[in-house]
Amino acid sequence: MPPRFPPGFRFGTSTASYQIEGAVSSDGKGPSIWDTFTAKPGAVVDGSSGAQACDHYHRYAEDVRLMGELGTNGYRFSISWPRIQPSGKGRPSPKGLAFYDRLIDECLEHGVQPMATLYHWDLPQALEDDGGWLNRATIEHFAEYAAIVGDRFGDRVEHWVPINEPNVITIMGYAIGMHAPGRALMFEAMPVAHHLLLAHGRAAIALRESVRGRIPSIGCANNHAPMWPASDDPADVGATKLFDGLWNGLFMEPLLLGRYPEDTLPLVEDAIQDGDMTTIRQPLDFYGVNYYNPMRIGATEDDSELPFEFRPIVGYPMTDFGWPVVPEALREWLVMTRARFRAALPPLMVTESGCAYDIEPDEHGVVDDQARIDYLEGHLEAVAKAIQRGVDVRGYYCWSLMDNFEWAEGYTQRFGLVHVDFETQQRTPKRSFDWYRQFIAAQKQYAE
Ligand code: PNW
């Protein structure tokens, strides 16, 4: 028997605009930094882009029908800023707004409550040309965009997430350049972290002012990874503590406590202006965690540019992406986070959790992804155990509904419950889809 979750728990799936929509220049959409970045030779391993992706822009009704079959009651998607404002400012595009009207209405017709992310990495290129997230002016534009979507969709959207994974944006996008906009500024990237946190706060304020007819539920979706020192050598322990501050603390403590961790403060200090920390620390209706795996950190040798490095985690199953499968670490993270923050911690949501396996349909058209079933079972059980220990977790959104464009990995990593043939756009629910459907159905039976 599957573990029983509290009534009202959201079992969902999660996606992002650039990874699934395609139609990158349809209906007046402006270019984003991902359109630019994917055109650079070598930026994406298979030379691909999100230009077509899952063609969800045209096939959204079929995709929402699949969610209905799955029986999920939640769907986390993202709104493409350059579809709403092609250059990141000015009057909204009626066709862009109309697409998300259709998507949201379709979800509600299938009993699926929308969770909208405002920024899942597709910055309008025009704003990047003015400095992107290094430029404080981008925050003002983001707040205006938030007010537009809050006003338009606020009556129907259950949950809001202003920014997806500010740490991944800062580090992958601006510090090492593996993601758009492809800048490799190392520690000079740190103002981006502060600006993204401010953008979160300004968007939360704008949403609370613009949503009509209901009180919006506003949270975040931060990527967190428990950090394991490579050994008990003090050098490894110290390197782990520093990287933990950069990856986890720098983004969590300002949102929940209104301050940066002491040992990372010098890195952002120059970017902070009066009142910023109050703007960042807006009340949160939920704290969303995107969890994939723990990371193992060691100190580096004398000739290396950075003081820390990643070391392999051995002794656990591995996804095809090479990420270790450690569901206990999710349970630990939930339990420890509650213990650390107590009253400062809002209800938690797992806003992403999932795994990549390169499994194709067999001769009968069956996609036998037992490893994903094991992954989901382990991680849902980890959440159930944390709830039993008193942690208030309200939802689990599986990454992802369907195979999609996995950023710098292109189409080589398949995270979906639904297989997508990118030549024909045929969707094939995998065995894991069926497993999740039965899991959700069992919860409904408990409730009766
Ligand atoms: C997240 N890392 O990205 C994103 O929110 C999704 O868009 C993405 O498809 C998913 O996880 C799977 O990768 C991440 O370097 C990208 O640790 C990189 C990292 C973590 C998450």
Description:
Helix 14 links the parallel strand 11 and strand 12. The longest helix has 24 residues, at 234-257. The protein has a single domain, classed as Glycosidases (TIM Barrel), CATH 3.20.20. A nine-stranded parallel beta sheet has the order 5-4-3-2-1-12-11-8-6. A three-stranded mixed beta sheet has the order 7-9-10, with helices on one face. A two-stranded antiparallel ribbon has the order 13-14. It has helices at 17-20, 33-38, 56-70, 81-84, 94-109, 125-129, 137-153, 166-175, 190-210, 234-257, 265-268, 276-280, 327-341, 370-388, 431-447, and strands at 10-14, 74-78, 113-119, 159-163, 217-218, 221-223, 227-229, 287-290, 295-299, 308-311, 348-352, 393-399, 418-421, 426-429. It is 41% helix and 14% strand. The protein has 448 residues and is of the alpha/beta class. The mean pLDDT is 98. It has 15 helices and 14 strands. It binds 4-nitrophenyl beta-D-glucopyranoside.
